[in-house]
Each structure stands twice: as C-alpha cells, then as structure tokens.
Amino acid sequence: MSADSYLLIQQARILQTDGEFLLGDVLVRGGAIVQIDREISPPESHHCEIIDATGLTLLPGVIDPQVHFREPGLEHKEDLFTATCACAAGGVTSFLEMPNTRPITSNQAALDDKLARAAQKCLVNYGFFIGATGKNLADILAATPTPGIKIFMGSMKGDLLVDTDELLEPIFANGSRLIAVHAEDQERISQRRQEFAGCTDPAIHSTIQDKQAALLATQRALRLSKKYQRRLHILHLSTGVEANLLRQDKPSWVTAEVTPQHLLLNTSAYETIGTLAQMNPPLRDPEDNEILWQALLDGVIDFIATDHAPHTLAEKAEAYPNSPSGMPGVQTSLPLMLTQAMQGRCTVAQVAHWMSAAPAKGYGIANKGAIAPGYDADLVLVDLNSYHPVLAENMLTKCGWSPFEGWNLTGWPVVTIVGGQVVYNRGKINTEVRGQALQVW
Questions:
Q1: CA separation for the pair 157, 155 (Å, rounded)
Q2: Which end of the chain, N or C, is surrounded by fewer C-beta atoms within 10 Å?
Q3: CA atoms within 13 A on the CB side of 125
Q4: CB within 8 A of 377, min separation 6: which ones?
Q5: Is the peptide bond preceding residue 281 cis, with omega within 30 degrees of 0?
Q6: Cα–Cα nearest to 334, from 27, 49, 16, 62
Q7: How far apart are the first and last CA of the chain?
Q8: Quick one: which of 284, 280, 285, 269 has its CA closest to 325?
Q9: How far is residue 386 from each of residues 56, 342, 405, 408, measured CA to CA in Å?
Q10: What is the pLDDT along the chain (441 residues), one digit of tens a residue?
Q11: Helix pair angle (211-228, 240-248), 10° resolution
Q12: What DSSP string runs through 112-123?
C-alpha cells in the first residue's frame, strides 16, 4: 500500500485494546491505522477505498505462530501461495513457518531461499524458523531474520531430530534467541512403537506417542531452560499433565501454545475420521481437552497456533503406521474459536488475545496484534450473526480437506486486510497482494 493510499472501514463493531467494542470507523493510510472514531469522513483530497462493515465485527488479523507450508520440496501437499490463500480466507494475516521442508531450513542459505520465495508468493506476512540439527550451532545463532530456533525433541527422523542432552545442552547454553520445542520423548516413542508393532488401528497412535512421552520432553526442556535462563516456547501443548506441570512450574520467560485440535478434538475422533485425526503430538482424552481449556483461560497457556500440516487424502488413506501425521488448520482456526466464544466458553476479546496480541508479544512482533493508531492494518472483519458448515470444497489449502468437515461455525471472515490491502473479500482472493517479512526479536 502506497504512503498516500487510504482505506476507510465504516460502521464496524471494533474490538478495542481494552477488550470493549466500539461501533465506528477505522481509517488506514499507507498500511497503518491512523484514526479510530465513531464516524470518520473520507479524506477529500485523496482516493479512499471504503468498506461497508455494517453488521460485522473488526478484529486484529490472526498471527499463526506454527505452520508447515511444505515449500520447498513437498509442494504436492501445499505451497506458499496456496497456503496463504487459505490464510487470507481464514483471517490469518501473519504466520511463522517451521523448518522441516526439503531441504531443511538449517542455515542462512536455506532461510534466504524461503524468504525469497515468500516475497514472490505470500499473500500475508511471514517468518521462518531456523531448525536445529545438533550440529549447526553456528548457523542457528547467526541466521537472520528468524523468530527463533526450532527443536524437534521427538516425532522426527533425520537431521532435525535432536533428542539427547548431549545435543540439546549446547543449544540452550549458547546465545539468547528464542527456542521453540516439539516436546515428545523420542526414546519412549521408539520403545512404544516396538511394543505395538503390527497394529494398524490409527487410534493406537495416541497410545504409542502417549502422555508420558510428552511430559518427559517438556520436563527436560523446562530443566534446560531454567538452567540457562533461556527463552523457551513449548509448541502445541497436548496433555493435561503438561498443563498442570506448567501451572506449578512456569518461569516468566517460558510460554506455551495449544491448537484448536487439542482443545476441540480427542481420541474419539479416530472412530469417525480415522487417520485424518492423526497428528503429532496426538489427540488426547476428553479430560485433557478440559484441562487445556482451563489452562488457556487462566493464562497458563499463552496463545493458539494451528500446526497447519497438510497431507494429501491419498497419503492419509495409507494404513497406519504408514499414514502421515498432520492436518490443515489456517482457514478454520478463527471461526472454530469464535464459535466457542459465541457458545460462552470464552469471550471474543479472549480469542483475539490468544490469536493476535499474545503471539505478537511472545515473538516480539512490533505493531501487530491490536487495533490502535500506529499499528499495522492487518485486520479481519468477521460475521458473528450467521453459521456455515466447514466444507471441503471451500478449503483453499492444496490438500483440500479439514478434520472439522461438517462442523457448523460462526465468525467466518468476510474481509481480510494485510498491510492496508484487501486480500480477501466475500469469497474472492486478491492474488496481487503480497505480505512482508515479519520483524521479530
């Protein structure tokens, strides 16, 4: 958006930074919010695009801090363009992407390649993690720009598996960059796989990669974080025992996230959708749903991420354990959570905090995550007055399916704005819009 371009959103129900709503207008200039008031007249001397937001609620754009967009190397599942089309339709205006592509993002050259691809293809704002291998300490300390170091403590093969203290300790001991961990204990998982070898029921996945595997890894990461006072983020927390651990022992420099899947789905999903319910860490028991919800409401869990990890339906149709783990999520996460708010489980303001303000704070992303003068105009207008089902044919992710197929949701995005530019408008994607590289710590 040029410095002289204006956008005026009129008669929206605007979520303010204090959690209250204002029925009014928002004026955007040059990609930033310049004025919020009950009524704003369009500037007379400049062209101004006007959006009639009557009946709609204006929220800060979602920042999804954990996605797998598969490019480069696995573009048959997803690519940066298709993924960010799904982001736009889901109200996700920024994302942080993981390093398990082909090649893996483990050095500056690989990071530069992703950034160059994103500049050409991404319709929303972007950032890319650098992946630890246990052998690339200099690379993960020097690579820039990146939101942090990703460590796969389990559920990974090849160079990105970093599963022993010998490999982990130097990473925690050196530098100050945020460390984000996939916390599952690989040794326990390997033992359990041998124990249950030959079982093809996908429900066994939650038994093999059990709660104890998650707890052991989270305990190890916390121990190392406390030893070195190192900024730690625990990705996709999945169990009640981990949440209870953090409730008792969570240093101020530690944050955690949860996915909508781990809040809303549980092991009963295997009966209805089979391998489509398979993810890492796995779905847990109904009691874990409840404990995770309470931890989120109490601030023990800081924010929400989707762990968007698409696979083709053909791949998912393979018999377990050959079926891959992962499911798409960027297009449905906001309406899923807003539906929970409308059902009284939480408030709309809490959803915006968990999905926008808190990720921005956690990763030090300036001028994003709120609707206020001076903030970037990354915004989403949602309809909280009607319900529509999740339908595979409406999913813009290349994999073309959702584990929430048929769920009747409200809060679907109507208009999504990235940097003051309308990227999604009532079902239509503006493929000319490009996001920007996120500036993080």
A1: 7
A2: C
A3: 32
A4: 1, 7, 26, 28, 31, 32, 33, 417, 419, 420
A5: yes
A6: 62
A7: 25
A8: 280
A9: 11, 11, 18, 10
A10: 666 789 999 999 999 999 999 999 999 999 999 999 999 999 988 899 999 999 999 999 999 999 999 999 999 999 999 999 999 999 999 999 999 999 999 999 999 999 999 999 999 999 999 999 999 999 999 999 999 999 999 999 899 999 999 999 999 999 999 999 999 999 999 999 999 999 999 999 999 999 999 999 999 999 999 999 999 999 999 999 999 999 999 999 999 999 999 999 999 999 999 999 999 999 999 999 999 999 999 999 999 999 999 999 999 999 999 999 999 999 999 999 999 999 999 999 999 999 999 999 999 999 999 999 999 999 999 999 999 999 999 999 999 999 999 999 999 999 999 999 999 999 999 999 999 999 886
A11: 30
A12: HHHHHHHHHH-S
Active site residues: 307
287: amino acid identity, one letter: E
Phi and psi based region of residue 339 (left: phi greater than 0; alpha: psi -120 to 50; beta: remaining): alpha
Stretch (H or E) spanning 258 = strand 254-258
Element (H, E) at 241: helix 240-248
Give me the count of residues in the chain: 441
- Residues 131, 148: Cα–Cα separation, whole Å: 9
Q: What are the φ/ψ torsions at residue 100 (nearest 5 degrees)?
A: -85, 60
Distance CA 80, CA 221 (A): 31
Task: Say what the alpha-carbon torsion angle 32, 35, 37, 40 is, to the nearest 10 degrees.
Answer: -100
